[in-house]
Amino acid sequence: YTTIPGDIYVKAGGVAFKNFESVAYYGSADTKGEVTLPVVFVGKGRAEDYAQVNVENKVVVVLQRAEDNFRSAVNMARDKKAKMIFLYNQDEAAFNDLTKQFKEYLSGGTMSLKKPEASSGNAGVFFISNEVATKVLNSTIEKINKAAEEDPKKSPLKKFKPSTVSYQISQETKVLKSENVLGYLEGTDKKNELVIITSHYDHIGKLAEGEGDLINNGADDDGSGTVSLLEVAQSFAQAKKDGHGPRRSILFMTVTGEEKGLLGSDYYTQHPVFPLSSTVVDLNIDMVGRRDPQHKDSAPYVYIIGSDKLSSELHSLSEQTNKTYSNLIFDYTYNDMNHPDQLYYRSDHWNFAKNNIPIIFYFDGIHEDYHKPSDEVDKI
Length: 380
Hints:
Order of helices and strands: EEEEEHEHEHEEHHEEEEHEHEEHEHE
Structural class: alpha/beta
Shape: elongated
Distance between the termini: 33 Å
Mean pLDDT: 93
C-alpha cells in the first residue's frame, strides 16, 4: 500500500501554511476536511510540563531539541490523549533540511505491507517552523523559548492565552504490486537445510525537483549487490553442473521495497517459500561497489556486520574462510550495536535476524553519492 499526500496545511493567525514549505506532515491520517481545535504549549514535553496544562483532545506544541528523539515526545503527547502534535525546532536550518528531505521521500508516498489505518485522531505529527509556532501560539519566538526553559514550578506554560489552530490532512492510499525474484539451487545430502543470499534491486526513484539528472540509478545502492548475487548464483550453478554442487540448498533472492522499509524481505519472512525453521543463514549484500573515505587507500576490504550476533559458529566460519581464500580486510566498525548509524537494523538481513536466523551483512560504507543521482555505474 502506498499513501500519497494530498491537500495538507496548517492555518493560524489568518495564514495558511502548506505542507513541505512551512510545515511537514508525517503520518497516515485523513481528516475529511478542515479541523479546528484548541492549542496548548507543553514546552519540552516532559511530565512536569504536562502537569501544568490539560491537553486532552487538543493540539499540543512541543519544542523539539536536536538531542531529543521526536518519537518519545510524540508518545508522551499521545499518552496524554492529545489529538495532534506540532513539533517546532529552534534551529531553522535543521527544519529547512527536514522539509527538503520530507519532500524528496514522502511526496511520492509512503509504503507499507498492511493498509494504514487512517483516522482523524492521534494519527500523525506536524513539524512546524518558528514562524508557524509564533502564529499558532500567538506569541513571539523569544517568549515561547523562554517559557520552555523556565522552571516548571512557576507554571510558565499556563501564561499562554487560549487560542485555536486549524489543519487539514488529505491523503490517498493505492495498492501497488511488486515482486521478490527467487532462484533455487537444490543441495545434496543436506538439501533440506537452506542458505539464503539476498540483495535489493529497488532504489529511491526520481528527485522531486531540481535541474539536470534527477534519476537515482543506484549503481552502488544496490546495483552492486544485485550483480554480485547473480555472479554468485552463476558460479554455484556451474559448480553443480561440474559435479561440485553445494550440500545445502541455496535460495538466491533479490528483494523489492528495501528503500521503503525493508518491505520485500519482511514479506518473505512473513510468507516464506521454504520454512524459516530450516533456514540456517542469510547472507545479505548491500553496497559493495565503492570505497568509503576511511578506506580510500587501503587494501581490499569489506565491512562485516552481524556475523557474531546469533551464531559464534558462523562468525568463526566466516573468519576462517576469508583467511583461506579471500584475505580481505574485515572491518567490524559497524558491527557495534551502539554505533550511531545502526546498520544492523537497516538492510534486508534484519528481517531474518529478528526471526533468529543468523546473518552476515556485507557492506563497503557510505560515500558522497549515497542516495543521489551521482551514484552511477562508472564509479563502481
